Amino acid sequence: MFQTELYKGSLEEKYEIVTKQLDALLVGEHDLIANLANASALLSQFLDQVNWVGFYLLKEGELVLGPFQGLPACVRIPVGKGVCGTAVVKDETMIVPDVHKFPGHIACDAASRSEIVIPIRRNGNIIAILDIDSPILDRFSMDEKGYLEKFTQVLEKHI
């Protein structure tokens, strides 16, 4: 779901455009923070019904807040805790339809109701996670999971 009416077509076509925009935006830049900042801004601008889009960087066994769009957030999340820390341990994308039913959910923004978290890798190792929150229950579909994973694969080639 996209905020702007400039994007017509199917969900797949919309994600294809945004992914191509990301690739073009990051060409020639390899700074991790700069690229994560632009990626979060791009997704935040185009995704509908989201209240937080950002990254946590994996540093010394914990996730540390990185570039994001949204309200102030938790600064540190232990690996294995909350949705973000669990995604690192499981080494997989996680969709949570209702964060209030997720054991150990860390509520950084009380308005968040659903979430998707995607690991970001460099040389096969998780270095960060993309975290997207929504105030809508069950906001993220399996189709969007696949499209967002493709988006992160483009991001990974630039970091």
UniProtKB/TrEMBL annotation:
PROSITE patterns: UPF0067 (PS01320). It holds the Pfam family GAF. It comes from the Bacteria. Signal peptide: none annotated. Gene3D superfamilies: 3.30.450.40. Residues 32-157 form the GAF domain. Belongs to the free Met sulfoxide reductase family. This is GAF domain-containing protein.
